[in-house]
Amino acid sequence: xxxxxxxxxxxxxxxxxxxxxxxxxxxxxxxxxxxxxxxxxxxxxxxxxxxxxxxxxxxxxxxxxxxxxxxxxxxxxxxxxxxxxxxxxxxxxxxxxxxxxxxxxxxxxxxxxxxxxxxxxxxxxxxxxxxxxxxxxxxxxxxxxxxxxxxxxxxxxxxxxxxxxxxxxxxxxxxxxxxxxxxxxxxxxxxxxxxxxxxxxxxxxxxxxxxxxxxxxxxxxxxxxxxxxxxxxxxxxxxxxxxxxxxxxxxxxxxxxxxxxxxxxxxxxxxxxxxxxxxxxxxxxxxxxxxxxxxxxxxxxxxxxxxxxxxxxxxxxxxxxxxxxxxxxxxxxxxxxxxxxxxxxxxxxxxxxxxxxxxxxxxxxxxxxxxxxxxxxxxxxxx
Length: 383
Known about the structure:
This protein is α+β, with helices and mostly antiparallel strands.
């Protein structure tokens, strides 16, 4: 027996789960396949070291579905202070562009729990603790065999199953992968002085350090470094002192709230975002360097654009509709990937003193060109 659906979404993380919810609210018959046995993450009162800077446009997308999490767990970025490695400086302020915030800082676990809470109240069919064993497509439909032997059919399969996507691999879409030779080390800290809603970032020559404001006197750190083992080996007090010192003690002393974790940084560019009866979203469709904090924002916009294009369409897997999705998303994704990759390359050229002076002067110049700076800010937050 084959269970039939309009759309099957593979991957129940933030992006895949939000798309499944958006499509179900359009009246679609939706199945969601998630490898975790329980589907949603376990919640506790501790802070999640995996955090995301969510843009105003994507907060609105989540609010429309009623899944924006409890504001008590959300940090608000009203200012941003970027420092170069040779004295350059660039500052953004939400008030300059008439925005309520540049971004909201939200924990992965709490956002995911909020989305899954709504999923459980809807008519989405969830296959938890399963993997896709086989995926085949024809011009008319797609078929999936799960690891437990169950068979599913749909007009469209959406791969939202991460950077190492099984869906992408099974449909034969090649992807170019560039390793940055770095890992992102993440941890949360209590800080001695108030952060004032300011996100701080330092280009350190051999890495990028970011402090993102959490509620209260707390920050989340993302340190992109070629030597993650050095940070992971430090005891909590030594880690807090190292991170505080790297940021010039701008928030005073720090105290570790969550242990440090690390994940490898890669630029992934699949040859296509769509194939016959299949679309890719989120990290399955693209990854970027985290220095601009735009990875999950690109993924949420994939979900929002695809859901909007599928609304009121008779056949969600129609090839022309999938091509429209790819055309609409490719430019935005490519622009962000190029911008982040160029910034990474620019600030990691350590053997050209003239280039170091030039890149820092460029930061400061943009800081004094009000219209250009405001345009950069609006583009970054989708405002």
